[in-house]
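Quick question, first post here. What does this chain look like in 3D?
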Amino acid sequence: MGRLIYAGIVSLDGYINDAAGNFDWAAPDEEVHAFINDLERSAGTYLYGRRMYEVMKFWQTVPQQPDESAVMLDYAEVWRAADKIVFSTSLEAVDTPRTRLERTLDPDAVARLKADEESDLAIGGATLAASAIAAGLVDEFGLFLVPFIVGGGTPFFPDGVRAGLRLEDERRFASGIVYLRYTSRV
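> Answer (accepted):
Ran it through. Tokens below.
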């Protein structure tokens, strides 16, 4: 059975982007990026909202040139190896391999997918994740807390949802970023 994991790079005040939609303050350094790569290897399927998919499909075309860092090329391979499901009512089609389009997140279908998968599933996009969190589908939360306050934007956690969590892992990086991994208390 696969776990559904919601992870992201988050400002210290809890946002994945600022009020203007920017996330330039969140770019991981090589150490953090390599750690993320290792975590992502467990995911056989990514569940994305439209905006997250549009950001992430960059990894399909990362050029294989000497000026690309080894960590960037490694993540591109990890991303390309996984299946992707994009949930969107506005996209007409998806244009990356191993990707299918669904119009809505069906909690029962996601629960069946988790039960049938041997590998983990990763969910990306705050709006999509909010629906999965509200449906009780998320098994694990990973936060990369950046020592930066943005003052507003898109929150990592949705309003109106309460959940008890248990800290399972933590790590500090030289950049000041702190990784926290929580599981849901059932």
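The two ends are 17 Å apart (CA to CA).
The chain has five helices and ten strands.
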